[in-house]
Amino acid sequence: MSSSAPQHPRPADGHRLWSVDEHLADVLGAVRPLEPIELQLLDAQGCVLVEDVTVPVALPPFDNSSMDGYAVRTADVQGASEEFPAVLAVVGDVAAGSGELPTVGPGEAARIMTGAPLPPGAEAVVPVEWTDGGTGGGAAAGMTPASAAPEQAGGEVRVHRAAEARAHVRARGSDVQAGDLALAAGTVLGPPQIALLAAIGRGTVRVRPRPRVVVLSTGSELVQPGEPLTAGTIYDSNSFALAAAARDAGAIAYRVGAVADDADTLRSTIEDQLIRADLLVTTGGVSVGAYDVVKEALSSVGSASASSSGSAGAGEDDVDVDATRIDFRKLAMQPGKPQGFGTIGPDHTPLLALPGNPVSSYVSFELFVRPAIRTLMGLPESEVRRPSVRAVLKADEALGSPAGRRQFLRGKYDAESGTVSPVGGSGSHLIAALAHADSLMVVPEDVTSVEPGTELEVVLLG
What we know:
Elements: E1 17-18, H1 20-29, E2 37-40, E3 48-49, E4 53-54, E5 64-65, E6 69-72, H2 74-77, E7 86-94, E8 108-112, E9 124-127, E10 156-159, E11 169-170, E12 181-183, H3 191-199, E13 204-208, E14 212-218, E15 222-223, E16 234-235, H4 238-249, E17 252-259, H5 263-273, E18 279-283, H6 294-297, E19 318-321, E20 324-331, E21 333-334, E22 338-344, E23 349-354, H7 358-376, E24 388-393, E25 399-400, E26 406-414, E27 419-422, H8 431-435, E28 439-443, E29 449-450, E30 455-460
Parallel strand pairs: 1-20, 7-8, 14-17, 14-18, 15-16, 18-23, 21-26, 24-27
Antiparallel strand pairs: 2-13, 3-13, 4-12, 5-11, 6-8, 6-9, 7-10, 19-20, 20-22, 22-23, 24-30, 25-29, 26-27, 26-28, 28-30
Helix pairs in contact: 1-7, 4-7
C-alpha cells in the first residue's frame, strides 16, 4: 500500500465541469509512491531502484581472453608468418573457470578459451584462426574439443601471425572498477540493469515494488471472449484493454471478470479485491443511467473503517462513508466526460472509476490511471505522463470539436514528416480505429474547428 494515507479528493462543486488538469492534479495529489522493499533480482524487474548501487568488485575481476586461441609471449611470435610460423610448445589448457594456471615461459603457449584468465607469463592471445590448431597442418578453423582430443593440450602449435602486447586480452576493471557507481537511485530495472547487478554479485536489491492494479468491468451485457454471444450481449474488451495498459505502464495487473449490474455483487467484489490492490480501476457504471451501479455500490464499501482525517464537504454526487470517499464528477473533455475518483477502505486505496465506452475508458486510463501507476512506482515527474510532441494536422477536411471540451482524437503520427493524421471518427465506441492509432490529437477547449495544416499537441501512445 502507499507509504502514507492519501488526501481525500477536494470537495466537488455541485455539477460544475472539472478540467482535465484539475482532475489529474486531484488524482496525483492523493497518490504516494509505494514503500521500498528488498526483492530478488528477477522479482525486481520493472521496479524503480531506491538506492545507489556501487561496484564491490572490478569487472572483469581478472585479465581474461576475448578469443579462443593461444596465450603467448609477444617476443615468441614476433615476425611470425604463414611461410615462417613461430613453433611453440603447448604447456596446457586454460578454460573459463580455471583455477590453477600453467605458466607460459619462453617458446611456450597455452591453449586458452574465451573468458579464461590470462596465465602467468603470457602477454597476448592469438586467435586459433591464426594458428594450425596444434594439428601440424594449415590455418585452423577452430579447436578440437578437449574431451575428444585431450592430447591437444600438449604438443606444438604453429602461429602464423604476430601479436601486439595485450592483443585480445580484456583487462581487469575495463568494464567497471570497484567503487564505481553501478546504478543510480531512480533507475528502472530492465534486463541490462538486472545483468549488471548479477555481474557485480548482488542477489537482492532495494526497490519500490510494481503497483498491484485490479481492473473490474461492470455490465450485465458483458460476455467473456470465447463464450457465445446471446441477444443483447457484447464481449468484455475493456477489462482486457485496461489490464494490458496497466502492465504496459509497469504495474502487476489483475483482471476481474465482468461484474453484473447489481450493487451488492459489485460491492462484495470490490471489498474482496482490496486485499491485493494498490490501485483499483473500474470501468462502466459512472454515468446517470438507472443501471449505473458503481455509485450505488461504492456508497458502502469499507464502511466498517473509521476515518481519522475527517471528510471533505459533500457535493450532490459525492459519496461519504467513513474512510471511503469517492467523488463522481463531469470533466470538460471528450471522450470521457463522466469520471469517479477517491480512496477506499481502511488502507485508503486509490480508486478510479472510468466510463464504460471502450475509447472513453482507454483515453481516461492514459490521462489519469497511467500517471497514478507511474507515481506509485516512484518515477520522476518527467516520466509520469506520456510524452507529447507538436505535429501538423494532415487531413482532407477540418476536424470539428465541441466548444468548452478538450477533445482527444485518435491519430497516426509520422515523425519523419512531423505530421499527424486522424484515424476513424470521434465516436467513443470505435475501438477498431483505436487499435490502429499510435497517438492522441489534442484539441483545446476553446477550439471548435481544426483546419488541415494546423499544428496540434500530439500525445504519443507507443
